[in-house]
């Protein structure tokens, strides 16, 4: 939401009411701004104004940022008719302007960042910004040194014109590795492992840039980001 903002738009957004109902309420003198009854639909509201609707304060909370430990079975979308979404796990007001900054597949677990700040999330999702996403990968077949080197060099994915950008790949055990990539192609990690003759069995994201999944968050739990974490993304 950009300020100054029309009063009817502000109320519709914060009270989650249709514009027609908001305008009717304004006419009926349901609305005050800084203690004064306002009856003009296009009255300009600023971010710090104190607005009430039928005596109930409506506060614009500004830009917000959350981390979630995503469980299996949830999709990274605002709504879906078939599956629960990550937003079903957040008990927060006014989530309709939120989006996921770097989606995960339904069967992938771990760190998801959610925000209503589009400029901030672009810093994460744009390959040009070189923000690495780090995954713990369990594989069906043993991991070879040749496969690790291919991942580090970049592999050619099916139906892609260019190979993937160089990844950071560290073997953890015979069937597991830590993989960091700075792109977000469709099913990228799974396709990368397929390209080197293997298959992903389990996938968990543990880190985006220098934001690490909080070890205190159980599966399905979330918390607000700290100022330090928010500023990590904006750092050059």
Automatic annotation (TrEMBL):
Source organism superkingdom:
Bacteria
User: What is the protein named?
Assistant: Pseudouridine synthase
Q: Which organism is it from?
A: Pseudoalteromonas byunsanensis
The role this protein plays is: Responsible for synthesis of pseudouridine from uracil-516 in 16S ribosomal RNA.
- Residue ranges of the RNA-binding S4 domain? 5-63
| Homology family | Belongs to the pseudouridine synthase RsuA family.
List, alphabetically, the InterPro entries matched. PsdUridine_s_RsuA/RluB/E/F_cat (IPR042092), PsdUridine_synth_cat_dom_sf (IPR020103), PsdUridine_synth_RsuA/RluA (IPR006145), PsdUridine_synth_RsuA/RluB/E/F (IPR000748), PsdUridine_synth_RsuA/RluB_CS (IPR018496), RsuA_PseudoU_synthase (IPR050343), S4_RNA-bd (IPR002942), S4_RNA-bd_sf (IPR036986)
UniProt keywords (A-Z) are: Isomerase, RNA-binding
One Gene Ontology BP term is: enzyme-directed rRNA pseudouridine synthesis
Q: What SMART domains does the record tag this protein with? A: S4 (SM00363)
Per its UniProt record, what PANTHER family does this chain match? PSEUDOURIDINE SYNTHASE, PSEUDOURIDINE SYNTHASE FAMILY PROTEIN-RELATED
The EC number of this protein is: 5.4.99.-
A Pfam family (short name) is S4
Q: Which SUPFAM superfamilies match?
A: Alpha-L RNA-binding motif, Pseudouridine synthase
Q: Top EC class per UniProt? A: isomerase
The signal peptide, as residue positions, is none
Q: Gene3D superfamilies, per this entry? A: Alpha-L RNA-binding motif (3.30.70.1560), Pseudouridine synthase I, catalytic domain, N-terminal subdomain (3.30.70.580), RNA-binding S4 domain (3.10.290.10)
- Catalytic reaction list: uridine(516) in 16S rRNA = pseudouridine(516) in 16S rRNA
Q: Which one of the record's GO molecular function terms can you name? A: 16S rRNA pseudouridine(516) synthase activity
